[in-house]
């Protein structure tokens, strides 16, 4: 459990971090909470020559309301999200989702920016960020900023739209519309605690008509995805458990599910359907309150 | 003074362990120490054509590199202590691979360097030219005629065949009104102690003494075997096991790394440390279980068992470790469980595969036996339409039938099986749950109740039945100040014997607990001993302490009689004082006795000075703890998730010295069984690669997903030892697995599920439901 030699930098500002990234280019790896990168380095599955540690950059750790969305600094810890009153009020699915990640120690250290950049196909956040229609703000070594929609951000297994010369600075989550309920449900892989399947559902009701519905699913496919088939089947429909059940059958449509020793493709696809149904029902129950 | 035996006296070990002041092997730092890293095979089966260590040797900071060829004739092969049959095939187990590698993780070379990082870096500089060979991963495949032969010199993958039989099994099956048959897998498990293995070796070139600190359960046996491997006189090897962070049998071992570090420390004349990584622990420290077999039970329609047979293949792995061949034989000894089964037979084929060795993992052979038989009892109950509690009652050995000898010659010491069953059913509210189950089924919910009534064999054991001595030793020494030192050969590794042995000594000598110091785990300080495994710490080690305390007390009484000027039988011991029965105003304290014994100016002329006694206790039999566990669960049939609603354990481990320690052992044991039942499987793929190579892929129970457990006891003293103790270290693990599986299978009975192989992960449960529905 001894990593290969590497150079280590601990910048105090984002500007400093970007200069270091410019200087070291593809030899460098940016370290956020370290909950994935450090184990990979210890096993020597990852051997970066240079580490740029963002943990000393205070300006990247915040959660604040900005207009109609919540802005979350990339270095906000899972614990910060889990316990944020602002998020609980404006987009409660994120604290709920964060509470499912790892254990107390992991949540105390891991960050939302790090998790999204790593793009583990079984990570929890991608499902919720997709369902929230969140956006990821990044900046490159020239100081140029861009905002990427969550749907465009996740490209493939451990692959995102983030360029090697970019750092995530902020995650933007639109505030929930009125009469909106949400739920995040997950079946854990027993050893790692990652999701065999995690479903984030957000439903907006008008009387008992489903005005808007968004479902994000993680753990099932090489990347987290929106279950658009389910969403389309439900939008504008009057709520009724049978309709939800039927629509949830579409949760793994067009998906080529992952397969490993913990669960085969069939079980993952099945979980996607069952957890989608359950998450939707729970979200609707919450929307009614 | 209040009596201490029988009290939940707080652990004397805890203050140092809780405050981080415990000392584990990796905490040991020595001047000029260097660090070892081990190159291990990525192949399960390959020929080594060449090893080039030149680049690694040139790396700055590298002190030495050794390979298998370098140590041929210098380190003797690792011995195995168990030989259940004379014709057993014995592979030669060199400390490092010489011509072939036999499993993923097989050690090939050792690098010693100035620090751990350099040592690790240098491993990548060693070039090994392998010729991969087809691996044998599956034990059934290993026996096929076209299977590659692992040990070419042995000419076969069949390690040995073994059979145990009692009664007329064929007649029993001929007379049977019903035969129940089921194939069972007792899957391979990884023990996962919190502290991996660690070895520090230091050579004193002046005195020619090698000191080996190692995280082990058996320091004296390590000394005997490693001194043999290194051609050192036993007196020139000192083995120290300081605090040990869990063993579970994985450290009831002698490992090649212990010999390698000892050799390197002598060769380099520098201290060497090796600390196992978790991945190494998973690849190259022993695994447990791994039996695939078919069991058949012959019964009468009324549920009376007539006979039992079990035909099994046991996977040894590539080599034997200390006790590998003996473990599945323990399954055979306990196949009759708590029942009067008049005829029993087990036939076993033990095979080599390209995997790490299996060996003793908490329960060692007995969890397998309990699992098989208790699953069969439920299958039989369902087949015959008898309540599972009733079929057990019907066949139980009765309290007045002890000592009870099974048809294959195992004599159970004592027990009261029905009392434990009745109490467990009462605590679990069995009849209420049966009603609840019925109601739930109407609503499409699936509740199940599982019972396991177990008996196990422990307190190991009579030396005649043990590979390397089954006795235990203790010295009780009263110092001139009246303080007491206990030297025990039963070196505990987390169980808490520093506490329970203190309680015994306090009870016998009437001293204060803080005046007792229990010393263990150092072969230079402590007389030869065996160690702790097979739930023997209290029943055997504790008895030795009790006997030594008795001996020292006898001497103290003699000295006291002299000091009081009365006959010896006139002396009564009250708390720590010796009092004249005829004149209670005359008394001497233990301290006065100790003073006299060490400064014998006023002292009997026919007595030796000093106040020390050593006892070696040889048990006349094993002990047989028992009990009944009841599990109530609900299965979510949509996801396959199992929720444990209630778990009740009523155990009988004989007389108890410390109920708190017993409760801890039972709960810990049940949680470990829960791991086997619901989560764990050490998985090698068909290419012989270890897929569950890290804790991210090998699940173990955690606080948040472990069941809540209600624990109670009944107490049937063992007649085997004066403490009446039976042992409890493994009982939870032995008794619990079938309770979980029986509960789940009971829940799913309406869906047609008969049996599900462990572990019952949601995925596996869901698959079983789906298959049952489909068929």
Task: Give an account of the 3D structure.
The complex is a heterodimer of chains A (289) and B (775). Chain A has helices spanning 14-24, 37-42, 78-82, 85-90, 93-98, 104-109, 112-118, 125-131, 150-153, 228-234, 241-248, 265-288, and strands at residues 7-9, 28-31, 50-53, 63-66, 69-73, 135-140, 145-149, 154-156, 159-160, 166-174, 180-188, 195-206, 209-218, 225-226. Chain A is α+β, with helices and mostly antiparallel strands. In chain A, strands 4-5-10-6-7 form a 5-stranded antiparallel sheet. In chain A, helix 10 (228-234) runs antiparallel to helix 11 and helix 11 (241-248) packs antiparallel against helix 12 (265-288). The N and C termini of chain A lie far apart (50 Å). By secondary structure, chain B is of the alpha+beta class. Chain B has 3 domains: 14-133 and 194-246 and 251-284, Aldehyde oxidase/xanthine dehydrogenase, a/b hammerhead (Aldehyde Oxidoreductase, domain 3, Alpha-Beta Complex); 291-461 and 621-774, Aldehyde Oxidoreductase, domain 4, CATH 3.30.365; 471-617, Aldehyde Oxidoreductase, domain 4. In chain B, a hairpin with a 5-residue loop joins strand 16 and strand 17 (411-412). Chain A binds chain B through residues 1-2, 4-5, 39, 43, 103, 187, 189-192, 196, 261-264, 267, 270-271, 274-275, and chain B through 116-117, 120-121, 277-279, 638-641, 679, 683, 691-692, 694-700, 702, 705, 761-763, 766-767.
Produce the secondary structure layout.
The complex is a heterodimer of chains A (289) and B (775).
Chain A: E1 7-9, H1 14-24, E2 28-31, H2 37-42, E3 50-53, E4 63-66, E5 69-73, H3 78-82, H4 85-90, H5 93-98, H6 104-109, H7 112-118, H8 125-131, E6 135-140, E7 145-149, H9 150-153, E8 154-156, E9 159-160, E10 166-174, E11 180-188, E12 195-206, E13 209-218, E14 225-226, H10 228-234, H11 241-248, H12 265-288
Parallel strand pairs in A: 1-3, 2-3
Antiparallel strand pairs in A: 4-5, 5-10, 6-7, 6-10, 8-9, 11-12, 12-13, 13-14
Chain B: H1 14-18, E1 34-40, E2 46-52, H2 54-58, E3 62-67, E4 100-101, E5 107-113, H3 116-123, E6 127-132, H4 139-142, E7 158-166, H5 169-175, E8 178-186, E9 198-204, E10 209-214, H6 219-229, E11 237-240, H7 256-268, E12 272-275, H8 278-284, E13 291-299, E14 305-317, H9 327-333, E15 344-352, H10 366-384, H11 388-395, E16 404-405, E17 411-412, H12 417-428, H13 430-442, E18 446-455, E19 472-478, E20 484-488, H14 497-509, E21 516-519, H15 537-564, E22 571-574, E23 577-580, E24 587-589, H16 590-598, E25 612-617, E26 626-636, E27 641-652, H17 659-678, E28 710-713, H18 731-747, H19 762-774
Parallel strand pairs in B: 1-12, 10-11, 14-15, 20-21, 27-28
Antiparallel strand pairs in B: 1-5, 2-4, 2-6, 3-5, 7-15, 8-13, 9-10, 9-12, 13-14, 16-17, 18-26, 19-20, 19-25, 22-23, 23-24, 26-27
